[in-house]
Design the sequence.
C-alpha cells in the first residue's frame, strides 16, 4: 500500500539573477513497510525533497499526497496538521526544543500527535542507546546523541511515514546498527521509512535505494 505519492516535483530557488533547480521532476511512491535509502552528493536536493514531501516546504510544481490526502497547495495549518498526524521527521537540525529535556521533547510530540504513551519513553530512549539521558537538556548531548534523541521524538508517535536526514552521522558502528535495527522495526510495524544517508551499512540493509543527482532520480 502506498503511504506517500509525489508526482513530478519541481523546486526552484533564486539568488539574484541566478536560479537553482533543486528538484527537477521527481516522482516517487513510498510504500508502507518499505525501508528506502536516499543517496546523492551534497547539493543534489535530498533535504529539499524531504522538506517538500513533509509539507514543510511547498514545491513549485507537482503534488504530494499522503495516505490519499493532498498535502501540496493547502494552507500551512492544514499541512501542519497532516504532518503531525502522519509523519515522524528527523532533520539535520532543529529537532529538539533546547529548553526541554529529551523526555519532555518526546512527550510533547506524543501530545501533539495524540499517539504514544509516556510510559513507553524509557524503552524508546534505551532502544536508541540513550540510557540515562532521558532527563537531560539537549545542550548536554553530543551530536550523535542529539540526532538519536531527535529520532526518538520522530518515532514517539509511531508515524505512518518516517523521514530521516542522516540519522547515523557521528555514531560508532555498534550504535549505527542499533539505529538501523530501530528503523527496520518501525518499518516492520508498517511505517514507510525514507532515510537520507551516506552510510554503506545502512544502505546495505535497505529494501530499496534511490540515488539522486542535480535534483533528479538517477537510480531507483
Ligand atoms: N533556501 C534556499 N535558497 C537558495 N538555494 C537553496 C535553498 N535550499 C537549498 N538550496 C539549493 O538547492 C540545492 C539543493 O540543496 P539541498 O540542501 O536540498 O541538497 P542536499 O542534497 O540536501 O545537500 P547536503 O547533502 O549538502 O545537505 C543546492 O544547490 C542548494 O544550494
Sequence:
Amino acid at each position: 500500500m502506498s503511504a506517500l505519492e509525489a508526482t513530478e516535483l519541481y523546486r526552484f530557488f533564486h539568488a539574484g539573477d541566478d536560479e537553482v533547480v533543486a528538484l527537477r521532476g521527481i516522482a516517487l511512491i513510498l510504500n508502507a513497510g518499505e525501508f528506502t535509502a536516499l543517496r546523492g552528493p551534497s547539493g543534489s536536493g535530498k533535504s529539499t525533497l524531504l522538506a517538500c514531501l513533509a509539507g514543510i516546504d511547498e514545491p513549485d510544481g507537482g503534488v504530494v499526497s499522503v495516505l490519499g490526502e493532498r498535502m501540496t497547495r493547502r494552507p500551512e495549518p492544514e499541512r501542519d496538521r497532516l504532518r503531525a498526524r502522519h509523519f515522524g521527521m528527523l532533520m539535520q537540525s532543529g529537532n529538539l526544543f533546547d529548553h526541554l529535556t529529551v523526555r519532555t521533547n518526546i512527550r510533547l510530540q506524543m501530545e501533539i500527535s495524540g499517539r504514544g504513551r509516556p510510559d513507553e519513553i524509557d524503552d524508546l530512549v534505551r532502544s536508541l542507546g540513550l540510557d540515562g539521558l532521558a532527563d537531560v537538556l539537549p545542550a548536554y548531548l553530543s551530536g550523535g546523541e542529539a540526532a538519536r534523541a531527535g529520532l526518538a521524538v520522530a518515532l514517539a508517535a509511531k508515524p505512518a511515514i518516517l523521514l530521516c536526514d542522516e540519522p547515523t552521522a557521528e555514531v560508532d558502528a555498534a550504535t549505527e546498527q542499533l539505529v538501523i535495527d530501530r528503523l527496520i522495526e518501525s518499518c516492520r510495524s508498517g511505517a514507510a521509512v525514507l532515510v537520507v544517508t551516506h552510510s554503506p551499512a545502512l544502505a546495505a540493509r535497505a529494501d530499496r535505494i534511490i540515488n539522486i543527482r542535480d535534483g533528479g532520480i538517477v537510480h531507483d
